[in-house]
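Quick illustration, no need to memorize.
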Amino acid sequence: MGKFVIKQTNTGYTISLKAGNGEVIGIGGEVLSSVAVAQNSIESIKKNAPIANIEDQTVEGYETEKHPKFEIYKDNAGEFRFRLKARNGEPILASEGYKAKDGCKNGIASVVKNAPDAEVVLPE
């Protein structure tokens, strides 16, 4: 079972989604002002991930999907990444870089599988 981890930093709070094996699947898009805001962001991820479309921006002439959606793109280093955008278009979760597009797609599948029922771990 996956889990969301809320961590306190010097400037606020961050969230990450971890798979059952402890691997980080995605991180929240920004530093958040409070635990409550972090929990709201997590609820948004839980709600949006299972119904999100996939927009593969690495394919020429790709079709623009409606929000919520996962966007697959290539970063400056040439690695594949995804970001989950909520209904309002705000990015709410982002991935690490993947060498292969299949790895990126597996990351999306892991978010869809793990996010909805993930437990929330609050900061100490």
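Strands lie at 3-8, 13-18, 24-27, 53-56, 69-74, 80-85, 91-94, 119-121.
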